[in-house]
């Protein structure tokens, strides 16, 4: 089926912990398409990464287009349903699979999920240090309204 992920097998699932607190999930299909998601949980990057790597054992070789089916299996297919660690890992996988579908179809993910709900968002510009800027001047500059890039 043209423009779908049906038949596009997941070839690789990787978790990338990034200091000080993030985890990014990368899913690659057999035909080389790559999707990204975020699976961060403050203070538990290594544990969430391990959960993503465990999910990879199930996902590799399966159809990347079966997003809802994968979500159901990862969240409800075990005796214990998990908590914030597993929920974060599933969220990163889910985002990466939606990213793959959007790329395959040539549309932004928000179009797949019902459309945009705003034309601009407040973006927080501080990242990397362990404490955010303290002065009123730098605090005002670190948060501002931005519009998405025009297509």
Automatic annotation (TrEMBL):
<keyword id="KW-0456">Lyase</keyword>
<dbReference type="InterPro" id="IPR034593">
    <property type="entry name" value="DgoD-like"/>
</dbReference>
<dbReference type="Pfam" id="PF02746">
    <property type="entry name" value="MR_MLE_N"/>
</dbReference>
<feature type="region of interest" description="Disordered">
    <location>
        <begin position="128"/>
        <end position="151"/>
    </location>
</feature>
<dbReference type="InterPro" id="IPR013341">
    <property type="entry name" value="Mandelate_racemase_N_dom"/>
</dbReference>
<dbReference type="InterPro" id="IPR036849">
    <property type="entry name" value="Enolase-like_C_sf"/>
</dbReference>
<dbReference type="InterPro" id="IPR029017">
    <property type="entry name" value="Enolase-like_N"/>
</dbReference>
<protein>
    <recommendedName>
        <fullName>Mandelate racemase/muconate lactonizing enzyme N-terminal domain-containing protein</fullName>
    </recommendedName>
</protein>
<dbReference type="InterPro" id="IPR018110">
    <property type="entry name" value="Mandel_Rmase/mucon_lact_enz_CS"/>
</dbReference>
<feature type="compositionally biased region" description="Low complexity">
    <location>
        <begin position="130"/>
        <end position="151"/>
    </location>
</feature>
<feature type="domain" description="Mandelate racemase/muconate lactonizing enzyme N-terminal">
    <location>
        <begin position="21"/>
        <end position="114"/>
    </location>
</feature>
């Amino acid at each position: 089926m043209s423009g779908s992920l049906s038949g596009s097998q997941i070839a690789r699932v990787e978790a990338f912990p990034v200091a000080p607190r993030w985890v990014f999930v990368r899913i690659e299909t057999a035909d080389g398409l790559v999707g990204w998601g975020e699976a961060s949980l403050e203070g538990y990057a290594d544990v969430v990464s391990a959960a993503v790597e465990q999910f990879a054992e199930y996902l590799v070789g399966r159809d990347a287009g079966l997003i809802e089916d994968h979500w159901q299996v990862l969240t409800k297919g075990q005796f214990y349903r998990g908590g914030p660690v597993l929920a974060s890992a599933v969220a990163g996988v889910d985002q990466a699979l939606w990213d793959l579908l959007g790329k395959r179809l040539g549309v932004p993910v928000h179009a797949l999920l019902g459309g945009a709900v705003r034309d601009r968002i407040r973006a927080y510009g501080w990242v990397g240090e362990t404490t955010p800027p303290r002065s009123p001047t730098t605090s005002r500059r670190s948060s501002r309204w931005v519009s998405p890039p025009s297509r």
